[in-house]
Structures are given as C-alpha cells and as structure tokens.
Amino acid sequence: MCGTWVMKAVYGDTYTEDHDLIHAHKACNPEESVQSAGEVRRAAAAAAPSRRRMLGLAGALGATVAGMGLLDAKPAAAAPAAGAKKLFGTGRRIVDMSHAWGEDFPVFRPFVEPPKFTQVASVEKEGYNTLMITMDEHSGTHMDGPKHFDNGQLATDEIPAENLIAPLVVVRIADRAQKDLDALLTYDDLRQWESRHGRIPDGAVVAMDCGWSSRINDPDRIFNRDADGKPHFPGIGWDAAEFLVTQRNIVGVATDSPSLDSGANNYLDPRAHKFLLPTGHYGIEWAANVDKLPESGAMTVIGLMKHKGGFAGPVRMFGIY
C-alpha cells in the first residue's frame, strides 16, 4: 500500500486515508458493497473476534510452539558461502585477512594505546548486548589513510569505493625475515616478483608476507625490543616504496607486521609512510593470513570503518582467489 504522501500526490487534496480503508476492504471482501469508511469500520468491528478470545488463541499457540521445542531453537544460519558463490562463482576460496582484536591485542607503543571494551547493556538486564569501545584508529588490522601524513590528502571516508576492491599482489620475504628481524621488502623483491608473474597490475594492493601473522599471540616475538627498547620487525624498504609510487600504478600496500616501516625505521625515519601516504595511497597494517594467499591471481576486498575525517581505521579485509 502506498504511503499517505504518495497517495496525496496522486489524488491531490481530495485524498484522505479513508480511500485506503475502503479499497482494502473491497479487495479482501469482493462480495460486499461499501460506500464509506464508516461502513468499513463497522463491518470490521462486527467481524473482529474479541481481545480476550485473541489472547486465548495466542496463549494456546504459544503453548503448542513451546511444546514442540521451537522457542528454544536457534535461528537457522545462512547457507555457508551462499553470497560468495553468487558473487564469485563456485570454486573460489575466500581468506580472512583481518585479525580479531580486543583489549589484549598487541599495540605499537608509544604510538598507539590499547583499546577498551566495556559492556554497557546485557541480555540478562536490558534484553540486549552492547559494547562501548574506546580505541585508537590504529587498532587491530587497520588502514593508514592518505591524510595520516598529509593534511591535503583524502580522509579515509573519502577514499573511493572502487579503490577498496583490487588485484592482490603477494611478495614473500618470510624466509629472510626469520633470519633478519629488520628485513625489508625491497625493489629487487618487486622486480623478481614481476619476472615470475608479469608487471604489477594497475590498481593493485601490494602485500608483504613476512610471516608475522604466526606471532600475533606473542607480543615479545612481534616487537622484539632490544635492551634500549627499540623494536625489530620487518617493513617496506624505501626503495620499494619509491618504485611503487613512481613507477607503478597501485592503490595501496599491506603488511602482516605492525607497520609499513620496519621497527627501526619507525623511530629513525618512517619514509615508507612518507612516500606512500602523501601520494594518495593507503597502507594496511597487521594484515592476517597473507601466507595463505597465492603470489598472484587473487583479489582483495576491504571493508573500511567510515568515520568522517579519518586518518586511519580498522578494516575487515578479504583475499579471494
């Protein structure tokens, strides 16, 4: 049934809600002839069962449903991967590239403070569950947006949606990172990837696989701080960042380590950030399961928290191949 404002637009000032009442009654009771809304209301009142009788029927129905055990049954879950099959076809694999995060998720201090989760409503008291979350934008698997290092660049809510669906390039340096905690993704790594798979696709996200996803539950092995407190973990080399910005047409990069820059470079000169972000690219940090994706041929879809004026924000990221 059209809303009142629609019907008034069609019939003009002659329209009243009685139009709907009369036409609806005639549609359901074609054998009856009514000319006014008052007749419809009187007919409906005469035919309507009493409130007490209706409550009795509802109670009986509730008892029957309870007896069948239906009230205790869980809602049926959606068919697994039904949406993905419809969108991507059968035979595709989807890899979750985001870590679940909470108050115990490692944060890169002194730059980031841990989030706080407070339950402010519960099913037992209010009838529903709600969390109040206080967090830094750089919490969990997250995106550093272009404006993070340049006020003239895009905020995260301004990043075009088409830039969040991209070919995914995976460059592996995990073997080297096992031996050298300060290992970098280099220009040579990118050129070697291209010698095997061809030119990095336009509009791609280039992801570094340094093997750090396996360390996510062991903060000491993530940050590897030395006696002076300086962290050691892999990042994107400055030569690689410059090549991607000047010689290739990508939309962003991703690392499975805590930062785009290595632990040492974050303190000395975060130049990978400075190359990539002010040129309009974004960077995903703390990506998960990069090691489970092929080096080429995959796509990524990034769901980004869309808060106004964002410099960064948590993401739910997927790899599809």
Described by strand count, sense and barrel closure, the largest sheet is: 7 strands, mixed, barrel
Contiguous low-pLDDT stretches (5 residues minimum) are 1-15, 47-73
Helix content percent band: 25-40%
The shape is: globular
The rounded distance between the terminal residues' Cα atoms is: 45 Å
Number of helices: 11
Helix-strand topology string: HHHHHEEEEEHEHEHEHEHHEEE
Structural class: alpha/beta
Output the radius of gyration: 29 Å
Number of strands: 12
Strand content bin: 15-25%
Strand order of the largest sheet: 4-10-9-7-5-11-12
What is the average of the pLDDT values? 82
Briefly characterize the structure.
The chain has helices spanning 4-11, 18-28, 37-47, 51-67, 82-88, 174-179, 187-197, 219-223, 238-247, 263-268, 271-276; strands at 94-96, 116-121, 130-134, 142-144, 165-172, 184-185, 205-209, 235-236, 252-255, 282-285, 298-304, 312-320.
SSE topology sketch:
Blueprint: H1 4-11, H2 18-28, H3 37-47, H4 51-67, H5 82-88, E1 94-96, E2 116-121, E3 130-134, E4 142-144, E5 165-172, H6 174-179, E6 184-185, H7 187-197, E7 205-209, H8 219-223, E8 235-236, H9 238-247, E9 252-255, H10 263-268, H11 271-276, E10 282-285, E11 298-304, E12 312-320
Parallel strand pairs: 5-7, 6-8, 7-9, 9-10
Antiparallel strand pairs: 1-12, 2-3, 4-10, 4-12, 5-11, 11-12
Helix pairs in contact: 7-9
